Each structure stands twice: as C-alpha cells, then as structure tokens.
Amino acid sequence: MEKDLLIGDRNWGIPTYGSDGLLCPGITQGASSHSSLFEGASAPPYEPKDNKLPGEMKNTEGVKSSSRSPDELPSEELPPHRRDWNILLVSEPEVKEALLQYATNKCCYRTSPANEMKVRNLTPLNTYRYRLETFTETRETHLLSEIYDGRFVDSCAVAPPPAPWEIRVDLPPLFTDCEMHIPVPHTYAIKDCRNCKGRGALRCTSCNGAGKTSCTACGGTGSNWDGDQTICPYCSGSGDNRCFRCHGQGWVKCHSCNGSGILLYHTELTITWKTHVTEHVAEKNTGFPAYHFQEVKGKEIFSDEQPLVSPIYGFMEPSIDEGSRACIAQHRMQFASTNCHHVLRQQTIEVLPLTKVEYEWKGRLHSFFLFGNENRVYTKDYPAKCCCSVM
C-alpha cells in the first residue's frame, strides 16, 4: 500500500515551505543551507473532480445526452473513444502542401512533384498511442556544515526534529520537474570539524609538518661545487630552508572551520518532483516505421488523472488494453521505493494520424506517408533529387 503524500494534523511547530523555493534541476547544485522559509498551506492530496468508476473513460470532448444506446448513435455523436477513427483526417490540398514543405526544407530536392502531382489514392492507417505519466515526489536528506558564527543553535533540545515526510510543502505545478532544498528544523548541532578533527589546523603537506624543506639550490647538501667546494649561500650550509607554505610552523589553518575547530552541522532535505513517461503505440503492418511517432503529436480522445489509475479495458484496439496494463505494472514496481511517493498519475490515449498517399508524377506512381497532427512526411524514395543530394 502506498503512503500518503503528506502527514497533516500534527502540531509540532513544523513550518510549511512555499513553492517560491522551487528550483529547476539545472540550478540546484550549490544550493546553500540558508533556504528561505515561506508561509502557505500544504497542498491537499489530489481528489478527482468526478465520481467515475476506476478505469472508466473520461471524454475530452462534450457529448450530447441521448437516451439511445451507443450502438444506435451516429458516429459524430459517440464519445471520442468509441468512434471509429480509421477515417481520413487530411484533405488533398493539405497533402500537397505537406509534400511541398517537405521538399522545400530538403537540400537538393526539387518541388516539381509537389506542384505537379496528381493524387490517386489516400488510405487512412491511423493508429493509437497510450501514454502513462507518473508525477513523483522523492525526499532525501544529507548532512551539511557551515562556519559557526555564534548564532542561536536550533538543536533537538528545542523540539524533536520532524521526519522527512512530515515536512509540509506547497506542490509545484503538476507534471513539472523541479527541486526544493529545505534545512530541517531542530537538527542543528555544533561539532568538531571533520576536516581537521577539531584541531583548527592541518599538517602542512609541503614539509610534512617539519617546518622546513630541502634547499633546492644545493640539493640539501649545504655545499656548492663551482670548482671549489663552498657553503651554499641560500641555506647557509644547513641544507634546509624554512617552509614557505606554513612559514616554518609545520601546520596550516583549516579553511573549513576557519581555524576554530568546530562547525555548525544540520540536516538538509532535498525534495525532487519528476515526471516519468511510458508510452505504447499500437503498431500495424503498414510499412511505416513506428518510432517516427515520437516526433509528432496526436489527437487526444481519452484522459484520466487519479492518484491511482486502473488499466484500460474494452478499448477498440486490444493492444492498448495490454499496453496500459504493462505500463501501469512497470510504474508500480519502479516507484515502490520508500523514499519515492507518487503524487498523481495521468493516462491518455491519442489517435495518431497516418495516411498513405499514392500519387502520379510524370506518368509514374509514387507514394509517401503523412503522419501526426503536424502533417509530417516520410518517404523512402523522393522522385526529384538532384545529383548532389546526400543520402
């Protein structure tokens, strides 16, 4: 059983953090522990606006009420997910315009076929895409430190520290990836600096704590050989010089604690909201590479948002039912971690327009595919390429 997003109704003096503290993933690195606190109520758990049964399809278009059964209704009066979408969604002028734009944007492609083509046949091969989005919230804690400047220490003696999931925050816009960094209240403590172990200084690495280094002029011998053996003027014959880095002390100040030997530690909470997407396209044996559908959008005919969504049943394309079950099972396993809670799930079904266009140009038949709402063109063999075109 999955846990609730927020634990409320506990009056422990736990502050609420507002959405003004949200950071996009690209700028979260280096976020300090001095995150500002913002007032505002926590977002309540998501509640669906309607009372439909789990898995029942919600139309994205309005449908006139009727006492007739769905089988008796004309196609245009049926809910979008009950209609037969194996219909032409493009017109002949749109086909010609799409091919013209395709040729214009290609290097060394002539536009003659698009301008002179005679459309012989338009075959609808529309298919469906199921898309599951899971919006998750992950909470992780890690220890941070800073130089102690004598300020008040909000330690556990003030109040018990809240658990990560007891800290209430404002939710960001749904299905928007972002992060928030929050110092956890009542976790501050003064402890020895881990870098210098409370000494405030570190052994000098240049002289290894000796305070002096071998003279580079004489190689530590104390003498120079210029035909006659003479005393080295740089070390006065001792063979050693005072260490330049530690000034002969053998120790250098620890910059982590600024020489004080102590640091102010606290726990910082990092909250990450992320959208995870899994898609399933009902593939048909049309000769069109299905991976090209990733480049385009379709017409949404079904949408459902719930904290838990149920698999689709009884859709006109059986593989969509199977795809929804597989996607939902995958997300349930993927986000079963104790530090990762799902906030909302959204499943949609789109009609992906796909039309096979057969046309005649200069007495020969050719064909191409038109796909997506954007009327993108896919063709293996364009009939008017210049000799310099690169394949």
Based on CA atoms alone, the radius of gyration comes out at 35 Å
Q: DSSP strand (E) fraction? A: 25-35%
Q: List segments where confidence is low: pLDDT < 50 over at least 5 consecutive residues.
A: 1-13, 25-70
| Helicity level | under 10%
Give the oligomeric state. single chain
Report the strand count: 19
Whole-Å distance between the termini? 54 Å
Overall pLDDT score = 81
For the biggest sheet, the summary is: 7 strands, antiparallel
Structural class: mainly beta
How many helices in DSSP terms? 3
How would you describe this protein?
The protein has 391 residues and is mainly β. It has three helices and 19 strands. A hairpin with a 2-residue loop joins β17 and β18. The longest helix is centred in the C-terminal third of the chain and has 17 residues, at 318-334. The chain is elongated. The protein starts with 15 loop residues before the first strand and ends in a 13-residue tail after the last strand. Residues 1-13 and 25-70 have low confidence and may be disordered.
